[in-house]
């Protein structure tokens, strides 16, 4: 089992533990805000399950029907998680409306606050670990799951503040109002995640800083060539796809040109990790005098 898959299993287990804590908090207090928070965590567990399935499927090797591998499935999982965030925020807003119509004072609020705070602390720690590990492993599904957990933390903080203020001031309307504010923040988080994930499905180019790094690597390692042009990039999961045209002197042998390509590919893979590189070699009469100049 890969580290990515083990991380996804761990995330699911932690999600179930947090759900249990929030479920107990709601059951003890009867608070509408705690109920809304529990509903969000139910969606969180569903999202973690989707991330696990995506991670397992994306790890499958390339086959005849999927010659470029299965890494893109993680973007589908991330889109699903973004949609689930929107669903969770909608559910919370529905509960907020009901609570505004018939507000009530929660039972045993201190116990509920302790349980909700403990759940938030667990999510903060795990979301931080998950985000760093997801970026290191190049897993959009794990990174998306970390975003969702942080959205869950925002909800928890808002709910804890709301219930605490209700307990101290006796103003029952503060509970649903704070839950409504956090729901709007979650909606923004869901929109951002959907935007990033759909960009991956649409084969957006790699970030500008990564493209600059690729150009620098090509410029410094393609000694013997003249230029590289028509550089294109895209990301799919942990893989960076790179293709470009490499111009070499017309009299250069195929073997010599191949050695240059091997040197470029080795440098790019060492720098980027998982990379799929396609280089089209052209004679000097095809030079465009633009793109990457070989130093």
TrEMBL record:
It holds the Pfam family Cation_efflux. Keywords: Membrane, Transmembrane, Transmembrane helix, Transport. Residues 11-202 form the Cation efflux protein transmembrane domain. Residues 207-283 form the Cation efflux protein cytoplasmic domain. It comes from the Bacteria. The chain crosses the membrane at residues 7-28, 34-55, 75-97, 109-129, 149-171, 177-194. It is a multi-pass membrane protein. InterPro entries: Cation_efflux (IPR002524), Cation_efflux_CTD (IPR027470), Cation_efflux_CTD_sf (IPR036837), Cation_efflux_TM (IPR058533), Cation_efflux_TMD_sf (IPR027469), CDF_Transporter (IPR050291). It is found in: Membrane. Signal peptide: none annotated. PANTHER family: MITOCHONDRIAL METAL TRANSPORTER 1-RELATED (PTHR43840:SF15). Belongs to the cation diffusion facilitator (CDF) transporter (TC 2.A.4) family. This is Cation diffusion facilitator family transporter. It comes from Roseomonas elaeocarpi.
